[in-house]
Automatic annotation (TrEMBL):
<keyword id="KW-0645">Protease</keyword>
<dbReference type="InterPro" id="IPR038765">
    <property type="entry name" value="Papain-like_cys_pep_sf"/>
</dbReference>
<keyword id="KW-0378">Hydrolase</keyword>
<dbReference type="GO" id="GO:0008233">
    <property type="term" value="F:peptidase activity"/>
</dbReference>
<dbReference type="GO" id="GO:0006508">
    <property type="term" value="P:proteolysis"/>
</dbReference>
<protein>
    <submittedName>
        <fullName>Probable ubiquitin-like-specific protease 2A isoform X2</fullName>
    </submittedName>
</protein>
<feature type="domain" description="Ubiquitin-like protease family profile">
    <location>
        <begin position="42"/>
        <end position="250"/>
    </location>
</feature>
<dbReference type="Pfam" id="PF02902">
    <property type="entry name" value="Peptidase_C48"/>
</dbReference>
<keyword id="KW-0788">Thiol protease</keyword>
<dbReference type="InterPro" id="IPR003653">
    <property type="entry name" value="Peptidase_C48_C"/>
</dbReference>
<comment type="similarity">
    <text>Belongs to the peptidase C48 family.</text>
</comment>
Length: 291
């Protein structure tokens, strides 16, 4: 049976990088030396590094992992910033992914046996030029037995943005209509799916080869990648919360037998409301999953 790649989101526009950040009063020199992954720190870099070196550094920093600023030892933030209602929103708090993994344990055994959750940094580590780092990713994946699961959740953190990749029925025959990938993005105007697809397909092929699978490379390369139109974020920081809620809702709503013919199922623009997301974040907050 021949396969064709699914249609992607069309008529999208790239989102330009944020302009120069002016609020950097709580970013101290000693912190900056150990942490350079968010746009605020890039602004600091922009002020303190020579132009030739800065250009090279900026290109590297744009592709780094998410901002872990809250985990750095530093002076207390200014009261002016803390009092800002927008910054104090639960949707802007840092996500504790380990606590979320623990939260997933609350599902029934039947649900838990159908899926596995991969670390959100593994994809960015896979793109490292260091072969030892790349190898460590697949050593970790081997322990997850992904080809025995219906669904595999791989959160991707790249360009300081969270998206969700779901592998569906990877243990089945690739000629079937049940095997596919889903790419859920709360900021689809960035065209992340199209820009990441080449690397996603390399990742999947390497994953098959590392597991000792013998499927034809052509069939692996042609696994459909679907990009359903799902609820979208309304500011620049909700993407992580959206990814966690996509996982939560997908586990609850996924059919017993997933088929590409029945797409997009529940994954539509009105899948859930922003109020639903806020209530979900309140629940995570009470469990210590966001802080």
């Amino acid at each position: 049976m021949s396969r064709r790649r699914s249609n992607r989101v069309t008529n999208s526009k790239f989102v330009t990088s944020p302009g120069r950040v002016t609020i950097i009063d709580d970013c101290e020199e000693d912190e900056y030396l150990h942490h350079r992954s968010c746009w605020k720190h890039i602004a600091v870099l922009n002020k303190r590094v020579s132009k030739p070196k800065r250009a090279k550094e900026l290109e590297i920093l744009k592709l780094t992992a998410p901002c872990f600023y809250d985990e750095c030892t530093r002076r207390g933030r200014s009261k002016r910033r803390i009092k800002c209602k927008y910054l104090a929103s639960k949707l802007r708090k840092k996500l504790n992914s380990k606590a979320f993994v623990a939260y997933l344990e609350s599902f029934s055994d039947e649900k838990k046996n159908s899926f596995v959750y991969l670390d959100c940094l593994w994809f960015s580590m896979y793109k490292s030029e260091n072969q030892n780092i790349r190898s460590s990713v697949f050593d970790s994946i081997k322990t997850k037995q992904i080809f025995s699961k219906k669904y595999v959740f791989l959160p991707i953190v790249y360009w300081s943005h969270w998206t969700l990749l779901i592998f569906c029925n990877f243990g089945e025959d690739l000629d079937s209509d049940n095997t596919c990938m889903l790419f859920l993005d709360s900021l689809q105007t960035t065209d992340s799916s199209q820009r990441l697809e080449p690397d996603i397909r390399k990742f999947v092929l390497d994953m098959y080869r590392t597991e000792g699978r013998t499927e034809d490379q052509r069939l692996v390369d042609e696994i459909p990648l679907h990009v359903p139109v799902v609820p979208q974020q309304t500011n620049d920081v909700e993407c992580g919360s959206f990814v966690l809620y996509y996982i939560q809702r997908f586990i609850e709503d996924a059919p017993e037998k997933f088929s590409v013919d029945d797409m997009p199922y529940f994954m539509k623009e009105d899948w859930f409301s922003h109020k639903d997301l806020e209530e979900f974040c309140d629940k995570l907050d009470s469990l210590g999953t966001i802080h």
